[in-house]
Amino acid sequence: MTLAAALLGGAKSRLLPASVPLRFFAAAAIFHVLMWIALFAGAEQATSFRGGAGPALAAIHLLTLGVLTTTAIGASVQLLPVATRRALAAVWPIKLVFWLIVPGSAALALGMHAVSMQVLIAAAFLTTAGLLLFAALLAETCGAPAACRWSRHTAGRRSPRGSASPASGPRWRSITRARSCPITDRLRSRI
Q: Which whole number is the average pLDDT over 54-78?
């Protein structure tokens, strides 16, 4: 067996349906076109932009959230299950990420362009919720987040190997596995 076959063994079973990452890439292409439209709409402001809402800020966010973030999410949900050898528990959470981030980013850019605080607040909530859900899914795929995976012992307690920590006061000494993670337990219970 070759090295490549050993590394990729069973990778096909961990791949998502092609429609899942491709929807992120299609959205990134649309956001790219919208970014250029917003930039041309505010061309007089583009070179002298110093901050504040308007077409230039909308174009920046269409690029960063719309193009770069959606491309990174689409690529990572396709590649990480293969690279980490851990499949996503379900496909619906990543579809929910798409339906939170893409409309949220579009509404955020629209709110910035139109200088509408109500739209900005609602869009920021949607986009943030999508990014937090993606972070939780990423943590689940790569392993639980550090706050959930590790419990730290303080001084005076026994480390996992049985040796006592120095009694010089509370310090972060040894690291052991925790039994459960509230974030990933909640995600698993919804599947």
A: 89
Which residues does 109 contact at the CB level (< 8 Å), separation at least 6?
34, 38, 58, 59, 61, 62, 65, 66
**pTM for the whole thing?**
0.65
Average pLDDT over residues 42-55: 74
Query: Residue 177: phi, psi to the nearest 5?
Result: -75, 135
Contact indicator for 74, 22 with CB cutoff of 8 Å: yes
SS3 assignment for the chain: CCHHHHHHCCHHHHCCCCHHHHHHHHHHHHHHHHHHHHHHHCHHHHCCCCCCCCHHHHHHHHHHHHHHHHHHHHHHHHHHHHHHCCCCCCCHHHHHHHHHHHHHHHHHHHHHHHCCHHHHHHHHHHHHHHHHHHHHHHHHHHCCCHHHHEEECCCCCECCCCCECCCCCCCCCCEEECCCCHHHHHHHHCC
Domain map of the chain by residue range? Answer: 11-143
Q: Could you tell me the pLDDT band of residue 153, with boundaries at 50, 70 and 90? A: very low
For residues 89 and 54, what is the distance between their CA atoms, to the nearest angstrom? 41
